[in-house]
Amino acid sequence: MFTKILLMSDIHITEPGVEIAGLNPSDRFRRSLEHAAKHHADATHLFLMGDLTDTGHVKEYQILKENLKCQPFPVTLMLGNHDERSAFSQVFSNLPMGFQHGAKKFGETTILYLDTLNQNNLNSDSGLLCNERLEWLDSNLSAGNGPVIILSHHHMLNTGFDALDDINLLNGNLVAEIIAGSRRCQMVINGHLHRIVLSTFKGTPHAAIKSPCHQMPMILGSKDLFPSTAEPGGYGVLLLDGQTPILHHVDVNF
């Protein structure tokens, strides 16, 4: 029997009247939530995997909070490069201060969700796990022997999208080494790329999910970050049974 987990990344909530690629991010997010509630009502949890807002303003987080009121799932919020810690903390003041990472147990499987936001660096869109966060990850991977799934906003491995690989997790190879070396991680899942991408590192699968809103054009090998496209959006459905995790992706017909 599977435990079902919902994954949404790169929500990019904007203030009223502000569109991305001709799309309304709040509307796309609400409709994805409605789709999930209708078709996956048996899900036990929803992770929002960073880039909750587009500019990190308080008003955007307030809109996000309002959108989350009527949906039925317990929610965990993660941070991405478009987020801003202080504004996030002002609106979601009921959450612990500090790094927005943690561990949640679902049956035999532990989901570790990372905080890869590297605020105040020279390349503000890239991610980083500082020494404190690396120690937290290593400690949690060493704390038991059951299966682990890791959620990250930023991707760790190169993808062929050169412009996005320039703003990946800066110490991604080190982090991927730590994860693979633990021999506990069944899958690493990230957002940030706005596309479905699959890879492996030393036997550990790495997968990226799309955004409910806008997507990255399918143009490989360019250092230019092309404008986003209005391709179908969607979300991930992760099935866990302690043995073989399965990741589906649902396109929502907007």
Protein topology:
Blueprint lengths: L2 E6 L16 H15 L5 E5 L8 H11 L6 E4 L6 H7 L10 E5 L2 E5 L17 H11 L6 E5 L9 H4 L6 H11 L2 E6 L6 E5 L2 E5 L25 E7 L5 E6 L3
Parallel strand pairs: 1-2, 2-3, 5-6, 6-7, 7-9
Antiparallel strand pairs: 1-10, 4-5, 8-9, 10-11
Question: Could you walk me through the main structural features you see in this protein, from its secondary elements to its overall organization?
Answer:
This protein has helices at residues 25-39, 58-68, 85-91, 131-141, 162-165, 172-182, and strands at residues 3-8, 45-49, 75-78, 102-106, 109-113, 148-152, 185-190, 197-201, 204-208, 234-240, 246-251. By secondary structure, the chain is α/β, with parallel strands linked by helices. It has a single domain, classed as Purple Acid Phosphatase, chain A, domain 2 (4-Layer Sandwich), CATH 3.60.21. The chain has a six-stranded mixed beta sheet with strand order 4-5-6-7-9-8, covered by helices on one side. Strand 2 (45-49), helix 2 and strand 3 form a beta-alpha-beta unit. The radius of gyration is 17 Å and the shape is globular.
Brief digest:
This protein is an alpha/beta fold.
In CATH's first tier, which class applies?
Answer: Alpha Beta
SSE pattern: EHEHEHEEHEHHEEEEE
Helical coverage, percent range: 10-25%
> What is the fold named in CATH at topology level?
Purple Acid Phosphatase, chain A, domain 2
Structural class comes to alpha/beta
- Rounded to the nearest angstrom, the distance between the terminal CA atoms is 31 Å
Within CATH, the superfamily carries the name Metallo-dependent phosphatases
Largest sheet: 6 strands, mixed
Residue stretches low in confidence (pLDDT < 50, at least 5 long) are none
> Please, how many domains?
1
